[in-house]
Amino acid sequence: MKNKEFIKKALSTESDNFNLPNKRVLHAAMGLVTESAELMDALKKSTFYGRDLDIVNVKEEAGDILWYLAVLFDEIDTDFETEMNRVIEKLKERFPEKFNERDAYDRDTASERKVLENKQEIIYAKNSKEITTK
What we know:
Layout lengths: L2 H9 L11 H27 L5 H21 L4 H15 L6 H5 L3 H19 L7
């Protein structure tokens, strides 16, 4: 296959139905990817190039990740405490006792989704001073 033929065939599969996301969500998502890549680069240099792991840099990148999460959480009307609780509830559903490979590979994503949605309903109810669960 020739270069131009490949490009033509590849572009024939590209969607032209773009739904541009909220700019702050996009900014946060791009920033999270960038900072995560910088964190991975520090780990790569330590793991494969024999350099000492630069903990100051690791903490800097982790802090930058938190900054972008703060932007995201502000835009989607949530906070760190809510999401920390939500992920723990999801993980308790996934791993009732403790981590094991079977539960990691054989996940019940529908059950996890119900936990996540139920947690969201509880949060909305608390915000409106009515505590109800479904």
